[in-house]
Amino acid sequence: MTTVLEKPVRKQPQRLGISPWWLLAPSTVLLVLLFGWPLVQGILAAFQAEGGAFTLANWERLFGDPYFVEALLNTLLLIVIVVPIQLVLAVGMTLLIQSKPKFGGLHFYVWAIPLAVSDLAAGLVWLTVFADRGYLNSLLIGLGLSENGIAWLNYDNPTTMLLAVVVAEIWRATSMVFVIVVAGVQMMPPDYDEAAQVFGASAWQRLWHVTLPLLKPSLQVALILRTILALQAFAVAQALTGRNFPLLVGETYQWYVNLQNPAVASAVALVILALSLGTAVLYMRALRQPSAGGPR
Amino acid sequence: MAEIELHNLVKTYPGGTTRATDDVSLHVADGEFMVLLGPSGCGKTTLLRMVAGLELPDDGQVVIGGKDVTYLEPRKRNLSMVFQSYAVFPHRKVGENIGFGLRMRGVDPDEVKRKVAWAADLLQLTPYLDRYPAKLSGGQRQRVAVARAIVMDAEVLLMDEPLSNLDALLRLSFRAELKKLVAELGTTTLYVTHDQVEALSLGDRVAVMRQGRIAQCDAPTTVYDLPAEEFVGGFIGSPPMNFLTGTVVAGGDGGFQLDLGAHSVPVPDALSGFSGRQLRLGVRPESFGVAARNGDPGGLPAELEVFEPLGSSVLLTVALAGHQLKVQAPPTFRAEAGESLRLSLPADQCRWYDPETHLLLETS
Prior knowledge:
The complex is a heterodimer of chains A (about 300) and B (about 375). Chain A has about 300 residues and is an all-alpha fold. Chain A has twelve helices and no strands. Chain A has a domain at about 65-260: MetI-like fold, CATH 1.10.3720.10. Chain A has helices at about 1-45, 55-65, 65-100, 105-110, 120-130, 135-140, 160-185, 190-200, 205-230, 235-240, 250-260, 260-285. Chain B has helices spanning about 45-50, 95-105, 110-120, 140-150, 170-185, 195-200, 220-225, 230-235; strands at about 5-10, 20-30, 35, 60-65, 65-70, 80, 155-160, 190-195, 205-210, 215-220, 240-250, 255-260, 265, 280-285, 290, 300-310, 315-320, 325-330, 340-345, 350-355.
């Protein structure tokens, strides 16, 4: 009797136990081949000497390279300047769209266009603006504000170089933050804002006490994505300045392609990975809702 | 405290073809509890939102406490509101939610604390002041929304279907509580609902709306007893008023009769002008007198089609000269479907309507 009763109970979970693995298998294989294997290879390469023995020489070489420190500082500087500006701009643009202006739909698409432009293309577009004989200098000379134009991207002008990269990055990547924030605002029921209006809140108070707190989850997503992507900024700076304004990913490229040293290139890549993971954890911790269970 | 005056408010939503409110005028006295009642899409919420300042009218005027506020921002109108969805801020604790309006106005923190404690006590929310709304039940969230509205000491209290998201039992108990609370506060209140029972039970007056217009605005008992339009009689009451159409003919005794086909009902002398024309008769289900076949020889013979015992009363569906009627009988009444009954129709319970305008006709 007991065996008869037990059988169907045991059979059910067993059937469920195998089939999910079959369904997961294709994506697992793909992930292992395209991500897992290169990742392992990269980590191994960073710690291996040419014969395959364990070594820290690659790291010593990397840390001894003056370009590495400069690239690290430049990357962090770019994040610290660009991300907050993009966040403020995106929220501002969202509020403008939300106020339902004429041709609001058109504005939305125009502001979202940079999303569709590739990094390198964006870099080249801005190169035509900032080059010695670019649009900006032509304009300045035409207006009589400058005699021969300004060497924006010259090695001797690190400030204007940074400025050019910042402007190009803001133009290129604000639209992503904007799209995320717009989605967040549109998911918010209008009642909260209306309640705040009725209960005496001014426009600023409504933004500060109602809209922004309710937008927190969207802002968190935008911040994490934007910071990690900014860590990977490469093509825009490469197109504008070459190696005059080094960035971390640019260094990876430099070591791998020009210096033919995959081991040190892997070490740089691992530094970027560690920074990305660190930022994500930091944001998650910092932006967690005050009540552990979450008020929503 | 203040009175609300609405003058000829017209509003058409962008892209809409019909007017959401069509030249609506309404006067709510100081301290009065006014209910806007109507089916969905009748414009009652639009009207409320125009008073709140959340919608702007295309034409007309909103006056609160003698001051024209038609185009004033909501926050400058000195009113508070309870939303249908409650709109209790999820990122604020209950206490912060209740005190929100006061803090936005820059009231002294100690005063805010005192008022929040007062409102929380009144609505039995004191144990929950430090919780987030997500940890509250629907009924408690509803109380937070009401508490947030009453701490404001506003001149006008607006409520947009505040009870519609509660379950039936909770709605019943909170209805009475709300009525008591608002009566104690004495605030001028504008209350929107589609629930006729809620409207009749709460309102000092009820404005019944239809297609952007106010069909009738009167005391609850008047709206129920003397519906000014057939629509009002048909909308209020469960089951609604019965309507019978017949032709007015001269009776044998010099008076007039409404010929319903096989039977006739006496018509008041005041309506003799309708002689030879059609007339509509409206009767509430509970206004009929019902007797078994042999009970009342003077009554109208009718056939019982459906017998529904409802506990506190008995609902009958009867056929009278080809018309189907709903009749409410005392709970002790017993009969079988298919039986013949006799219906009596007291003259003072008959309401007469013009078949073309559907408006109530004066009979005295």
